[in-house]
Amino acid sequence: MMKLSRWEGGIVLLSALFLSFTAGWFLRGNGSAEPLRVETRRKLEVSETAFPETTATAEKREKININTADAATLQTLPGIGEKRAKDIVADRVVNGPYRFPEELTRVKGIGEETLAGLLEYIVTEDEP
């Protein structure tokens, strides 16, 4: 067996440390991923351009409780047709009642823009 001097042993040790650090650096994966952020409550602004209905007409209209309304009642909302109304009722049966109106976006086909047009017409609880 060959004996290494102190200098040679130090160089071998430093080389091993460098190689293991380099391998770890390349094998570490994607470290720049965004942390998971959960929004528990948010409030959307009602868009005036989403559905160009006059505010006078909107004030006369009674708000619909999306937790108790049937599909026919939901179809009276702007932007909600027969298919989406049935999807809302089915989603409510599977996932339970909506805690706040913004949860309507969990229904396929209802995005932020559609929701913005619905906010002034819907409620999730009976209002006094």
3D structure, described in words:
With 128 residues, the chain is mainly α. The protein has a domain at 67-122: Tex RuvX-like domain-like (DNA polymerase, domain 1). It has 5 helices and 2 strands. A two-stranded parallel sheet has the order 1-2. It is rod-shaped, with a radius of gyration of 29 Å. The protein starts with 5 loop residues before the first helix and ends in a 5-residue tail after the last strand.
Give me the secondary-structure topology.
Elements lengths: L5 H22 L27 H6 L3 E2 L5 H4 L7 H14 L16 H7 L3 E2 L5
Parallel strand pairs: 1-2
Any key phrases for this structure?
DNA polymerase, domain 1; 2 strands; 5 helices; mainly alpha; 128 residues
| Beta fraction | under 5%
Give the uncertain stretches in residue-range form. Answer: none
What is the percent of helical residues?
40-55%
Task: Let me know the CATH homologous superfamily of the domain at 67-122.
Answer: Tex RuvX-like domain-like
String of helices and strands: HHEHHHE
Under CATH, the topology of the domain at 67-122 can be stated as DNA polymerase, domain 1
CATH class of the domain at 67-122: Mainly Alpha
What is the CATH architecture term of the domain at 67-122? Orthogonal Bundle
Distance between the termini: 92 Å
Shape: rod-shaped
Which strands sit side by side, in order, in the main sheet? 1-2
| Gyration radius, in Å | 29 Å
- Annotation, overall tally of beta strands: 2
The biggest sheet, with number of strands, parallel, antiparallel or mixed sense and barrel status, is:
2 strands, parallel
**SSE-based structural type:** mainly alpha
